[in-house]
Design goal:
With about 250 residues, the chain is α/β, with parallel strands linked by helices. About 40% of the residues lie in helices and about 15% in strands. The chain is globular, with a radius of gyration of 17 Å. It binds 2-phosphoglycolic acid.
Length: about 250
């Protein structure tokens, strides 16, 4: 399967920075072949501007979260349909920063998954263990529990993406060994069977301190179908180098 390289800009970027970053990437994809498909997930304030910049290019657009309800009295929140309307095809759900900062539970994430799928978005569902959980030898149990808790019951033949992001690897410069990544991704692939229509075709991304220097190695691991990139996605040259490192 073709690799998916998604950039999670998090709460970074004013209009000028975001537009310049997206423009630089559009120029790169026009001039050269990337090893995978690119998706940008800018802050909500930039979605429509970035949608305009990437229009006509193969770069996709994603939101960083959505509400579980379709509309209504939810001050400050954004619905899945609003993301679609702004030009998104993807939405990141269950990121550990949302689980942490906003106390999002698996049950809430499951409701958001249902809303995203109903609106025709492809959810990028994030799961991953904390350092303490890994030290206790619970990494596989935790990701399986998060997957079971946050995947809606009857996921038919709809596209969705899983992102394995060990919490301790996010923004720290630390990454699991390729053997550990392989073990968790294989476990996720097995756990997906029976829960989604086509487990083999469901992309499983790795996320957490993916950089140009380690992307080639991480993206070559069996069952790693792409990357969810935070910090390095804010620098056009770095994000492009990661996309180039993907074995096509
Ligand atoms: P990082 O973030 O690449 O900065 O570690 C990844 C993520 O949180 O998606």
């Amino acid at each position: 399967m073709r690799k998916l390289i998604a950039g999670n800009w998090k709460m970074n970027g004013l209009r000028a920075d975001g537009i310049a970053l997206a423009r630089a990437l559009v120029e790169r994809v026009r001039g050269e072949q990337a090893g995978g498909d690119l998706v940008l997930c800018p802050p909500a304030t930039l979605l429509m501007a970035i949608a305009e910049v990437i229009r006509g290019s193969p770069i996709g657009l994603g939101g960083q979260d959505c509400h579980s309800e379709a509309k209504g009295a939810h001050t400050g929140d954004i619905s899945a349909a609003m993301l679609r309307d702004a030009g998104c095809h993807y939405v990141i759900l269950g990121h550990s920063e949302r689980r942490g900062d906003h106390h999002e539970s698996d049950a809430l994430i499951r409701a958001k998954m249902t809303a995203a799928l109903a609106a025709g978005l492809v959810p990028i569902l994030c799961i991953g263990e904390t350092a303490e959980e890994r030290d206790r030898g619970e990494a596989l149990t935790v990701v399986a529990r998060q997957l079971a808790g946050s995947l809606p019951g009857a996921v038919g033949k709809v596209p969705l993406v899983i992102a394995y992001e060990p919490v301790w690897a996010i923004g720290t410069g630390r990454t699991p060994t390729t053997a550990d990544v392989a073990a968790v991704h294989a476990h996720i692939r097995r756990a997906l069977a029976g829960k989604v229509a086509d487990a083999a075709a469901t992309p499983i991304l790795y996320g957490g301190s993916v950089k140009p220097g380690n992307a080639g190695e991480l993206l070559s691991v069996v069952n790693v179908d792409g990357a969810l990139v935070g910090g390095a996605s804010l620098v056009a040259n770095d994000f492009w180098a990661i996309a180039k490192a993907a074995p096509s």
